[in-house]
Amino acid sequence: MTEDISVSLEGLRAHARQLVEQEGTRFLCLYLDQETQEVNLLTDSESLKKLVDTKVLKELKNILKSSSEDKENLIFHDHNQVRKAERPCTSSGHRCHLPPPKLQLSWEQKFPICFEDQRFPYRSYDKLPGEILRIIFGFLKPKNLKHVLLVSQNWKSVAEEPALWTGFDLPRKSRRNGQTLIKFLKSSFSSKLQHLTLSHTARNANFTFDLEDKHIKHLLSLNLRSIKIENADLSKVTDELLAKLVTSCKECDITEHRPRSLDDDSDSDISDESDVELDSNDFYHLGVEKIAAILREMLDDGSKLKTFKLSFEDNTYYFPLYLPPVSSRFDLSSIPSGILAKAFSKLDELALEYLKMNSEQLNSIFEFGLGNLTRLSFHGIPLDEAQTRQLLETLDKTHKLKSLELSEVDVRETPSGFFARVVNRIERVVLQDMKMEDFQIEDIFLAIIGGDSVMKHFVLGLDDVDRETVHRDMTFSEIDVEVFAKAVNKLESVTFDRMLSGEHSDMIFKVMSLETNLTTLPTYHFDQAEYECLEFYLVDPGVLARALNNLKLVKIDFESLTFPQMFAFFKQLNSKTKLETIVSGEKR
Fold this sequence. Notes:
Elements: H1 5-22, E1 28-32, E2 39-43, H2 45-52, H3 56-65, H4 79-85, E3 86-88, E4 115-117, H5 130-137, H6 142-148, H7 153-159, H8 172-176, H9 178-186, E5 195-199, H10 213-220, E6 226-230, H11 239-247, E7 251-258, H12 288-298, E8 307-314, E9 330-331, H13 337-345, E10 349-353, E11 355-356, H14 359-368, E12 375-379, H15 385-397, E13 403-407, H16 416-423, E14 428-434, H17 438-449, E15 457-462, H18 481-490, E16 493-496, H19 502-514, E17 523-526, E18 529-532, H20 541-548, E19 553-556, H21 563-575, E20 581-584
Parallel strand pairs: 5-6, 6-7, 7-8, 8-10, 9-11, 10-12, 12-13, 13-14, 14-15, 15-16, 16-17, 19-20
Antiparallel strand pairs: 1-2, 3-4, 17-18
Helix pairs in contact: 5-7, 9-10, 10-11, 11-12, 12-13, 13-14, 14-15, 15-16, 16-17, 17-18, 18-19, 19-20, 20-21
């Protein structure tokens, strides 16, 4: 033991004195002084008189002075508890189940030589600790977990924990028939539902009947955590009731779709923007009126909503190669700017993707709506130079923002140092389809190297004139190679939208071989897939081996390595490494 024993002994003496002198309790305690190897006795005067002339005290002292050669065998042993769990075997013609207790003092009753084992505490699985049951139940699917509730009160109390029911969704039968849905929602089992998906497209999530107010009223009785609405026909549900359902949840994800219709001209140039204004009633399944009702309900003090995502997908455009033109994006311009700003100001996380808003709305949101956010995603919403500057000035003043995602924003006219300062105040930054200059990227990297950054995760994608020309050999050629490499290795993860040159790759590995914060190799993302963005074949085997072994996770095609590189890697792996996981496979 490393703790100060003397402090505990003084407390024990004081407690013993109180028991004996004030409460009249018999007290007996022997302990071994580790320094003097003397056995000391704490007891009351009457007990001491009886012990002095007996051999009991001598036996106990000898036991305390004896030591175990193997410390691992020393476990706590409660003699009385063991005796309560053992009983002599009275069966005739039996074999011995257990020997008698190893420790039998001279004054104790002699026991028979055979005992039945009654000590195993888990003969009933009902007595397993809750922590063990929780781990076991975590491997069960909700359809099996519901049977666990019927086993016992102990199992039921553990199985009812919300974390175990994360994947539970509405049964298929309740999505096929309105009466079946109401019957399920009236059952006690419906209280396990935490996440609700209203959709006419998702597999196993589509409803074959029209949802009405009576269904929504029953859903309101649940304690839902999140709701996802995607391409759902809720035309028979009143705006106010749907708004109450959404704001009763902590998280909401709404995706509006424009389905491909027979009137779409498949031979037309889908990359051209049309000047024709489209009637929202032709393709919006939820509609701006219901969105406005949700935003108004968010202003109420009773709203629980803290995470809100609103996005639009136009199925006539093949994302990500083609982005939907501004004229076809979900138009929110009819919603008062004050409602938008006040509703967003109550959130912790906000994502707006491929929407159409007017200048007044954007100005109001930037001025009043973003101050409390910890995560902001702003994709595909056109901004002019003044609006871009206003957005960045707002972000520069926020102190809570931990994650920022921007896309289709032109920052070429934004002062480089100012933009670098803004993004380096945020831990996770995703910049996609951005119009930027190389010197602006270099200034971001210089701030990272200089220690003026809290950024840990960086995703960078630049806007190209023709998105189909993004090849693996495009590089950041105008950025200083050493600055680039040092900055990359200061981060924990990096993703680009293109392959890096051999020169950049070589320098990144050289820095990585000395020291790095990266947990895995940098990647590049294109067409919803990830690829290795570094070239290996020119890298020195020793440098590559030390670099890879400074990471925690390596996903690599070993066929892309030369034999000297592979040999050096495994040699380093056998001597000194930080690697925890290696994933080998064909290079994608």
